[in-house]
């Protein structure tokens, strides 16, 4: 009845709920020979108000315009009406510089829309104390390594050591141990093999059991017991020898041939530990790993062959350095033919007598070549075969000058990385240059 009255007719058919009730109003003509139904004349004005919980098309359009939505997906509606709304929204793109994307997918139809949102993280703790980059170029990238923590849509970047203070998280250090038994290789051969691979190694004293002075402790049940020693405080034999390799891996050797390798678990230390174990197994299978007899013998030991680890020439040291760099940065490691020449200091404007000096003329190519030849000769005299090496990593070019080990690169991150590798390489292959050094 309400639907009929919304069209404001002159009269509407009455709905009789009581058949015995007297007919009201006049009767209208029947349909299909049926009895005429009483008609009720309309004596009121009609106004329509929307009380629906959902907005209509006009309100949807206004909301989309107000929020400036870049993407609109039409769902949960009658297909024909959604297509009409889609056409209406697309027609509004004519006056827009940035077009709104309108989608009306069918049921179960997958729709992929890329979203790019810039996220900002607050740097706290030790990382916040790092000095800003020296370069004034705002486009220069700066790499910061840390742990990214998100809490209630807020992100913070911090060092692992600051997790407890700033994030309330505990950190755990994993100590890795590997035990092997060597039946042939002795401590002298092991030390020689480790020094030949990793350079100088540090000898450390074995840990001693802390003295408890005979004290006893009482547990919760009143029973006394001796103080327990943690795993990290295990007493090693006084005859054990321990070496620290690359500052992170400890190698302990017992007289019975048992070797224990211990290190703090992380990506870098795990790789060094694998290399240490490989060196130990290589030393065990080496022909030199033979127990020598103390009795006299008839044969002679010939010393004609040169020890590969003594009296190394500068060319051999340079070759080892290149092999080290190629293992780290790839095969694009080439020597530099031209040295790094320093510019001459400018002359003062006035000489000693107060007379104005004439401006210097630019050096011609012959003078530059003479300076380069003198510099190369000087480098050769101190045992440096080439002025430096050039390393190419993707689009970055790095130059390393061998005399001072100075590293030049446009990227600060790559420069520091190469500098650290070169310093480690120099420690591994022994001091590069200098007379009389082995």
TrEMBL record:
Residues 209-222 have a biased composition (Polar residues). The keyword Nucleus applies. The keyword Nucleus applies. Residues 207-226, 288-312, 335-369 are annotated as: Disordered. One of its GO terms (molecular function) is 5'-3' RNA exonuclease activity. Residues 140-432 form the Pre-mRNA 3'-end-processing endonuclease polyadenylation factor C-term domain. GO terms for cellular component: mRNA cleavage and polyadenylation specificity factor complex. Residues 359-369 have a biased composition (Acidic residues). Gene3D superfamilies: Ribonuclease Z/Hydroxyacylglutathione hydrolase-like. It is found in: Nucleus. Residues 294-303 have a biased composition (Basic residues). Keywords: mRNA processing, Nucleus. Its main location: nucleus. Pfam families: CPSF73-100_C, RMMBL. SUPFAM superfamilies: Metallo-hydrolase/oxidoreductase. GO terms for biological process: mRNA processing. This is Pre-mRNA 3'-end-processing endonuclease polyadenylation factor C-term domain-containing protein. It comes from Letharia columbiana. The lineage of its organism: Eukaryota, Fungi, Dikarya, Ascomycota, Pezizomycotina.
């Amino acid at each position: 009845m309400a639907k009929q009255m919304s069209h404001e007719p002159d009269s509407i058919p009455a709905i009789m709920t009581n058949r015995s009730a007297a007919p009201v109003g006049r009767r209208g003509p029947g349909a299909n020979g049926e009895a005429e139904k009483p008609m009720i004349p309309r004596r009121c004005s009609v106004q329509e108000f929307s009380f629906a919980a959902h907005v209509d098309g006009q309100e949807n359009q206004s909301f989309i315009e107000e929020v400036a939505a870049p993407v609109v997906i039409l769902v949960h509606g009658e297909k024909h009406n959604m297509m009409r709304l889609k056409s209406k929204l697309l027609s509004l793109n004519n006056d827009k510089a940035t077009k709104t994307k309108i989608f009306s997918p069918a049921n179960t139809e997958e729709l992929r829309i890329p979203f790019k949102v810039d996220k900002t993280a607050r740097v706290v703790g030790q990382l916040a104390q790092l000095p800003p980059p020296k370069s004034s170029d705002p486009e220069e990238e700066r790499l910061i390594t840390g742990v990214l923590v998100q809490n209630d849509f807020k992100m913070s970047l911090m060092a692992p050591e600051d997790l407890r203070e700033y994030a309330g998280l505990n950190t755990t250090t994993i100590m890795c141990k590997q035990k092997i038994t060597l039946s042939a290789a002795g401590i002298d051969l092991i030390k020689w093999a480790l020094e030949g691979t990793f350079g100088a190694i540090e000898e450390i004293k074995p840990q001693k059991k802390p003295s408890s002075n005979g004290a006893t402790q009482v547990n919760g049940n009143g029973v006394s017991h001796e103080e327990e020693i943690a795993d990290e405080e295990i007493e090693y034999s006084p005859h054990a020898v321990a070496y620290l390799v690359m500052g992170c891996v400890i190698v302990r050797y017992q007289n019975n041939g048992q070797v224990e390798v211990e290190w703090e678990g992380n990506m870098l230390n795990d790789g060094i530990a694998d290399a240490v174990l490989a060196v130990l197994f290589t030393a065990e299978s080496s022909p030199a790993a033979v127990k020598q007899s103390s009795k006299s013998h008839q044969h002679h030991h010939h010393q004609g062959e040169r020890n590969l680890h003594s009296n190394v020439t500068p060319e051999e040291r340079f070759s080892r350095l290149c092999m080290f760099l190629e293992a780290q940065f790839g095969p694009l490691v080439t020597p530099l033919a031209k040295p790094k020449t320093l510019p001459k200091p400018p002359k003062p404007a006035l000489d000693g007598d107060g007379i104005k000096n004439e401006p210097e003329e630019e050096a011609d190519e012959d003078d530059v070549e003479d300076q380069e030849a003198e510099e190369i000769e000087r480098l050769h005299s101190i045992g440096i075969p080439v002025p430096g090496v050039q390393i190419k990593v993707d689009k970055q070019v790095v130059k390393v000058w061998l005399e001072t080990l100075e590293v030049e690169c446009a990227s600060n991150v790559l420069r520091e990385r190469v500098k650290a590798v070169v310093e480690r390489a120099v420690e591994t292959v022994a001091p590069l240059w200098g007379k009389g050094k082995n």
